[in-house]
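Step 1: inspect the first sequence and its C-alpha cells.
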Amino acid sequence: MPVIDPWEFKEVKDYKELMEEFGIDDFSQYAKKLKGAPLEIKRKLVIGHKDFSKVYDCIGKKQEFAVLTGLMPSGVFHLGHMAVINQVIYYQKLGAKVYLLVADLEAQLTRGISQEEAKRIAIEEYLTNYIALGLKNKSLVFYFQTKGPKKVQEYMNLSKLASAKTTFNEVKTIYGEITPQKLISALTQTADILYPQLEGIKTTLTPVGFDQHPHASFTRDIAFRMGFSLPSFTFNKLLPGLQGINTKMSSSKPESYIALTDSEKTVSNKIKKYAFSGGKSTLEEHRKKGGNPDIDISYQYLKFFEEDDKKLEKIYNDYKSGKLLSGELKEIAIEKINKFLKEHQKKREKAKKLVSKFVLK
C-alpha cells in the first residue's frame, strides 16, 4: 500500500485507484442528495468519505453533530484553502457545532514557525477570510493547540493517552519514516478530532484534503481502541496549482496560487502568464481539434465560480470543439474570479472588525 506524507504532499495522478487501496467510499451519492451544497460538493471536488452516513442521518433527523477543522498557519490564504472551510460553513448552516483549531503547535514542530507568527497568520490570513466567507460565531469553539479548548486538562491528556494505543510499526505503516515532532503532531491532531466527543457530541465530521488521509486513518484506529465513536471524514481533491492539474498551490510560490487578497491586475497577470492551457499550439489546430478542458487550469478554477450549470456546460463544449479559444477561456475565468474577489475583499474589511469576538470567545 502506498504511503502519503501529509506534511510534504506532492500530487495524486489517480484518485480512484488510491480510494480503492485505502478503502475510501465514493461520496457521489451524498453529493446528489445534499441540498444547497457548496460548489466544492456539487462539482465533485469532494470525492470520498468514511462513515458519512452517520452525519447524513443527523442532518435528516436534525440531531446534534459536530464538524471539526484545523488550519495550518503557514502562509497566504489562497483558493486552494477554500474547499474545506466552505464545507464547514455549509454544515454549520445545517446545524453543526463547529470546532475550529489553529494548529500552531504543529506549525512550530513541523515547520519551524513561532507561536507569535502562527497567531498572526491564523488571524490575519485565515480567520478573517473564514468570517468573510460566512463562518458564524454561534455554535463555534475556536482555540489554539498550544492553549487548548475549554477542557484544557482533558484535551492535553487525550493526546498522551492516545500514544498508548498505537505502535511504532503502525505509525511506520501509515506515515512511513517520521520524526518525533511529527509523531507528537499526529497524536495532537487525534486529540483535536476526538475532543468534541469529550463534550458529549458522538457524531463528528472532519472534512479534509486527500493528503490528510493518514491522519484520518490513524485517528480512527486510535478512536476504536479508546472506545470512542469512529469519527467521520470526507476527502476532497486538492485544487491544482496554476502550473497544471498535477501541481499544487504552495504559499511559498506566488506563481502557483491566487490569493484571496490578490488585486484584479494580479489575478489577470497570474492566469495569463502561469495558468496551464489545454488548448492546442496554433489557432488553426485549436479550431480544428479543440481544447481539453479537463486539463485546462482556467476551466478547472471556473468550475468553482460559475454557478450556472448550463453556462459551464456550454463553456466546456465550446472549448472542446474549438469554438472557444484558450485566451477567451482565460478571460472568462479572470472575470469570474475577480468578481468574486471584489465582493469578498469588501466582506473581508468588515470581518476584521469581528475577529475579536471569535478570538476572545
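Step 2: inspect the second sequence and its C-alpha cells, then contrast the two.
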Amino acid sequence: MMTKTERVKAALKGDDVDRIPMSIWLHYPHKDQDPKSLADMQIEVAQKYDYDFIKLMPFGLYTVQDLGAKVKIFGTQHQPPIIDEFGIKDIKDWGRLEVLPAIYGTYGKQLQLTQHVANQLKGSMPFIQTIFSPITTAKKLAGDRIYQDMKEDPKLFHQALKVITETTINFVKANIEAGVSGFFFATQHGTTDEISEKDFDEFAMPYDLEIFNSFKDKTFFNVNHIHGNNIMFEKLSKYPANCISWHDRWVAPSLSEARKITDKCLLGGINEKAVLATATPDEIQAHIEEAIKDAGRRKLMIGPGCVAEPLTPEINYYAARIAVERFSRL
C-alpha cells in the first residue's frame, strides 16, 4: 500500500497508483482568523475522510488586508469575510503600495498556518498553500476599477502588480522554508469573462510566470487553478504547474477533452454545487465513476472544481471517498 505522498507523486508523474488520490476542500469562516484553529480543523477533516492531501484554506481576502482593504469578518461557520472598503479608491493609490515581508500581518498568519500544519503532519501527507495571481489580488483590492486604471495609466498599474508579485514571492519563499509541498495558484482572470487575451498577456501572464518560477523547481506538487467560465485553458495549461484544476464538470474542456490539450495531471471530477452538495450517495458515486472513466485513472486526482458548499451533508463526503476507492481500478 502506498503512502499518501507516494500516491500523489505517482499520480503527478503518471505512474500507476493503488488508488486515485483525492481531497475535498471548503472554507472554515469560524476558524480561519486563527492559524492554529484552522490548521487543527483541516488536519482533522483530512484524517476523518482519509484524504490524500490538504489544500490549505486561508480566507480568500488574506492578500489584500495588509495592502489597505478593510475586511468585514463575521466569524460564523457559513459566512466568509467580505470587502467592507476597497484599498484603492483613486488611481494614485496604486503608487502607494509597498512590498511586504511574509511575516507581516495577515500574510504572517497564513505562514503560521503552514508552520502549524507542517509541525503536526511531520511529512505524513502532502499539503499545498493557496496563493492568488497578482491581477486577482488587484481586483480584490480595488474592484472593477482595475479595468479603467490599467488603460488610464498602465505604467502605474504595472508598478502595483510588481509590488503584489514581490510580496507574493516573499510569501512563497517563506512557505517553502516552512515545509509546504507546493502551491495552489488560483487565478480568477484566466477567463475572457474578466479580461481580453491581449490584456491578459500584458497584465497577468508575466507576473504569474514570475511567481511560478519562484517555486516550480523547489516544490513537487503545484496546481494551476483556473477559476470561472470561458477559460483560456490552452494558454494556461502551458504554465509550469504539474497539475491543473478548473470547473471541469460544467466548464469546457471536459476531462477527456483536456487530455488532448495537455499531458499534465488533472485535478477535478466533482461538481461541488449541483452534485456533492445535494445528490444522494449513490448519485455521487456514479458521478465520480463517470469522471474516472472520462479521464482515465492515470495522471488524475479527484477533487471539486472549487470550494465545497458549507452545508454539504457529511455522508456525501464519505460517499465521494468510497467512490474513489471503489472505482480506482476501472
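Step 3: confirm your contrast with the notes below.
DSSP finds 13 helices and nine strands in the chain. Residues 201 and 235 are 10 Å apart (CA to CA).
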